[in-house]
Structure formats: C-alpha cells, structure tokens
Amino acid sequence: MWIKNFRHKKLQAALMFLIIMLCSMLMSASISILISLDKPFKEFAKECNSATAIVYPYSKTDKETIALGEQFAKISNIERVEYSRVHYITEELSLNDKKIEGFLKLTEYKDSVFGDVHFLEGNKKTVRELKDDECIIPACVSNQDNIKVGDKIKIKLPSGDVFYKVKGIYSEVYEMSTSYDSDILIKKLPEGMNSYLNIKLYGKAGVTGAELEEQYREKYDGQMNGMMVTLEATINNNQIAGNVIGAVFLAIGVIMLVVSCIIINFMIQNLMITDAKAIAIYKTMGYNSGDILSMYLKFYFLIISVACILGGVASSSISNIILSSMFKNMGKVITNNVFVPGITCYVVIVILVIGIIYRIINKTKRVKPVYALNGMSNSGTKKKNSYKGNFKFQFSAIGIALRGVIRNRKNAIVILITSIVTIFSINFGIVSLDVANTMKDNNDYWLGVDKSDVMINITDRKNTAKVEAIIKNDSRVNYYLSSNIATEVTMKWKKGMKSTAMKAFVYDDYSLTKLPIIEGRNPETSKEISIGSKVAKDLNKTVGDYIEIYLGGEKRVNLLITGIFQTYYDMGDCCRLTTSVYKDNNYDFRYNYFSIYLKDKNQMNSFIEDTKKRIGGNGNITARTEAFSSIMDMIVTPQKGAIPPVVALVLLVGGINIFCIVILRNTSNEKTNGIYKCLGYSTWHLICSNLYYVGVLAVISIIIAVPMIILLYPSIMKVCLSMFGFIKYPVTYNYFHIALANIAVLIAFIISTLISSRSLKKVNVRDLVQE
C-alpha cells in the first residue's frame, strides 16, 4: 500500500515535500538568527573583559574629567575606573588616497583597558612593542576598507601628513562597527594633536551599565557632565541589522507557510476526489475508515517530517551566512545550534499541516463501496438554461479559462491568494531596495544634515577663518552655511529614563537649510528647539510644550518645542538648535562644519579636488551624500544583502504553488479536457486556456497587490523602525522597477503554467470512451 501511494502520488508528494522544506528552511533560519545574536556578544564581552560602560565627558580638560571619574569611583557598584587618552579623527583619514569613513579615534594603548582584546592578527606582544609610527586597527575598519597588516594609513593634519603602519588587527565589543566610536590603537599621540580623556567604568560582577548610571545619578542629583554608553546598549545596537533580517525572514516564512497550507488543503481535497474509487474498493476488501485514515496520515506524516528535518538542516547554511556577516568584525566563527529552531518549526509545521490533512481525509468515512462505480462526483445533473451568447467566444481558450474561474471559485481564490501574497512580497522587496539605494542621496531627511552639495569638517578650529576665506572667495560657490553638527546637550534625569543626552544640530538660520520637518517648524530664536521623534515619544512631548536642557551638561535653558523631525543619527536621540541659543546664554560656541551650495552641481568633483589641495589638513572635505556614510551603510548594506535572496525564494515558492494548482486543475478537469479533445480541440488550445486562466488571475492580483504595497509600505516600515520613533516613512516609488518586478512575476507564473500543463498531453480520448 505504501509503495502504491508513493508510485501514484510521486508528483504530489514531491511538490508537497519541496513546499514544506522551503518553509521550514526559512522559518528555522530566521529563528536561528534571532536566538543566536545575544549570547556570542555577551561571551565575547566577558572574554575581552569589556568595560561595563564608557563615559564621554563634555568637559575637555583632564582635571574635570578626572574629577568626574573620581565621582564614579565613589559609588558602591564600581570595581574600578580607567582613563583612555584619545584624539577624535575629524581630519581626512585615508589608505592609498582612498578615504576611510567612520567615527574613529586615535587611542593610546593601555594594558589595563585593552590588554584582553581579541587579536585577529598580531598579539599582546605586538601591541605592547608598538613604535611611534605603528598602529593596531579594529576589525571593522579592516573589513570595511580592506586594510591589511603592513598597509600604511595617512592622517592629513594641518602641520603635515602623519603615517601609521598597521601591525595588527583586533576586535572588542565596543569596536564592532564604524557607525559607532572605534579605537585605532597607537603607542602615543603626536605632540600638538588635540587629546581628551574618556572614562572606562568596570562594574562589579553582575552589575549592568544602566545600574551604574542610575546609582550615579541618584547620588549626584541626577546630573552627569558627560554621555554614558553602556555595554548592553552597545550589544543591542550591534544586533539591529541581525534582528531586522531575522524578523523579515520570519515574517515571509510564516506568510509562505500560510499560503502553502491553503495549497495543501486544496491539493488533498482534489486527491480525495480522485482516490474515492480506491478508498471504496479498500472498504469492500474489509478495511475500515480508521485503517484508511491511519494509512494516509502515516504517508503524509513521513513526507512532512522528512521535509521539515531536511529544511531545518539546510537552514543552518542560510543562518550561518547571515550570522557570519554579523560577527565578521568579531573575528570569530560563530556556529549556531539548529536543534532548537528546527524542533520548534518541526512541531509547528507538522501539527498545522497534519491537522489540515486529517480534517479533509477524515471525511473519507462517508465514502461507501457504491462510490467505486462513480467516485465521489455528483452523478446527478442540473438542467442549465439554454445559452444565447457567442458560442465562438464561449469555447475559445480565453472563454474556457473565464468559465473555469466562474465555475471553480475555490481554485480561483487559491490562485488569487497565492498571487497576491507573492506579488506583494516581491514588490515589498523591490521598493525596499529602491529606498535603500537612494538613502545616501536623501541623507538630509534620514540623518538631518542640510541638503548642500559639499561639506567641510574643520579639523582645527584655529584655522576656521582661513578655510572660510577660501570658500568665500571661490566663484563656484553660490552660498555656504556655518554649523555645528552633533554637539551634545542633556536633559534633567528622571528615574526610568533610558537616555538623557541628545546630539544637537546647530545652524544660524534654518530657512536656508530647507531641512525637512515632520510637525511644526524648525527653531528660529534662542528660545526654541526642534526635537527628534524618538525623543518626543520617549518624553511624551509635542509641539508647543517646553523642554529643559543643559548646554554642555551645565548651562540650563528652558526651550519651546516648535517642531519634530526624524533621524537615524545617534539612534534618533537628536535635536535642532539655533546658534543664538548658545550666544545669548554666553556659552562658548564654535562652528565645526561648512555646508557649501554650488552654482553648478556638475562642478562638484572638480571643486572637491581643488579645495582639498587649497585647505590641506585644515579641513576634511566630502560630498554631502557621503557624509556619515558609515551610519547609512549600517542600515543599507544588510538590506541589500538579505532582500534579493528572499525575493528569489518567494518567487520560487509562488511558482511552485502555481505549478501545484495547475496540475490539480488538470487532474480534476481530466474528463472535461477529454471531452474538448473529442470535440477537436488540441492540447495547445487547452494549454492556452490554462495560460489565460492563470494570467487573468495574476493580472487581477497585480491590480490588487500594487496599490496595497503603495498604501501599506510606509506603515509597515514605521513599525519596523519603531526603535527610531519614526512618525512618517516617505517613499518615492520607482514605478519602472515595480513594473519590471511584476512582469518578472507574470513570466514566472507563465513558465510554471507551461511546465505543469504538459500533463494535458496525457489526456487520452480513449480513456474517456472506456470510462
């Protein structure tokens, strides 16, 4: 009996096996990714003896920084306090004249701070014996810019170029991405280079960074003259891309499973119709309904179980590819355990699919031996009204297809659902790629920098006037803006607050920046502020409310909120201020950026090259679209890597489902197709009717799904980016790409239909006569 089942249901069993295996593979991979992110980071932090938190003081003097460190040393949960001397690299950093992007700093090596870091190349002896012109770079910098041991990196200083030869590559939890501060380790900072102290806090066993911050603030009236970055927050930030990819995989896997269950339900229903005679014969031989039910369930249980197991095993390759990209900057091979996600998916899928099959097959108890004569088909006929329409159209290929849609609504609905889900998912992926590809061009919206052509970061404030004069006297410049990008302000701490610091974008006049605002307007006076949507959400603030902030952690001002904007910068904890806020409150303020608007944008490359030579090491010049590119790359790169294979997988599953449905349609319509052949219709005519059948439903699906994606995409992305507090998610749709994607889906469906329609060649008129 088992051999007969496999022999007669080879195609059906193979299709069901493939569908279940793909669903299991994607769902297992997604769960594996989601549960495998946290533990390796925590173990790595323990191995490297990472600081519980890092404090970036607002004060730039060593005396005040050490005083702040001594305050931390007095709280009970602190084991020890260390200081790290750094120089924030605002100058141009390059390798072979290729710019190295990121939030980087030169840091003097200290054994008590970096003694336990993980070395990918080199060792403790290498870093302890560094010469003045040698350095150790983080793995994230090495991987991003393909920097190897032996290469020389160049820093362009006002006093001249400084070179460092790379002697080793290391990794540590705080050094996992150039989107956050990363340390290039050197023996000693050169004379004349600006240097500051950072504070590394090491808590007692089991104490978190958040607990250290809360204890400190409770002891010192809520105020901290610096910004704290905790170990747990750093780990969470490093997991963002992995969590997004895992969630997308899981969502698509669940959607695929639901659609596949609909297909399987339809498949088994048709099977019971074709097997009705065989079931009736088994009953005449003495088998009861329970025996027959058990036989079918065991058959399908075996197929589904093997498919789930193989899908779970295969999922390890997908999850390992994603995880290896997530942990490559750790410099370790992370092997995930597929057992837990595999078992979870196995239980869910088997229970769900076997439940659907049981519900349908259980109806075979109503099959009586007499059905051996005519199957489960209704032997009665219903008199139809005489047809007075166009017989030529009615029995054309498209007429047969339309009649099939009307008469077999269940089949049509299954194809419609499959097509809508497939088309929606593929369009979602295409739109996401289009948005990702244009994010850098629109970083005025996504980050909050003004939409200039070129930006110059002043590396030495003493030379600000010199750089400004060069810009002012260049005939290619239309106008320029002075600004301070990403200085810090703080808010009064209250118990339960996750963050008290905001990065501030400061301009003289926002009317010239044309920076987008979601609600209200940008600030205009020294009494006004615009805040990020995440800050507004966390503090339950809106336009018209007041917010109390501290300039540099010490000068308290109470400002009216005039607007709310959105940004990825610093995880959304940002605000906008006018220069007058600082000047009117007698606070020392200096610009660190010039935003340049050119008369002719086509001259941008030549302007950059000319100005770079003229300003030398006094400024770091870049195209505005490349400003803070490491932040954009952190968001964009995972999407570009994960979306294409997922779109291909969805298209594959959609094609397989269409193949199954057409095969089942051909099987259930075998008698009807035989009659058409008796009337003189060719196999190709019947194949064309299938093509029209699927094509009409696919076009209807496109008409439904494309407006759905245009309507729902921004809302879906707002939910996905809730961590940034986004209120709006603007999308400029590339309708050409959307059209190409839907044409590709139609072609895939047509190919599936053509392949599955080959079974029509086996429709034999003689079999119909014999029956």
From TrEMBL:
Membrane topology category: Multi-pass membrane protein
InterPro entries the record matches: ABC3_permease_C, Membrane_comp_ABC_pdt
Transmembrane segments: 12-37, 244-268, 299-318, 338-361, 412-433, 642-664, 691-713, 733-756
Originating species: Clostridium yunnanense
Subcellular location: Cell membrane
Record's keyword terms, sorted: Cell membrane, Membrane, Transmembrane, Transmembrane helix
Main location: membrane
Residue stretches making up the ABC3 transporter permease C-terminal domain: 251-355, 647-764
Designated name of the protein: ABC transporter permease
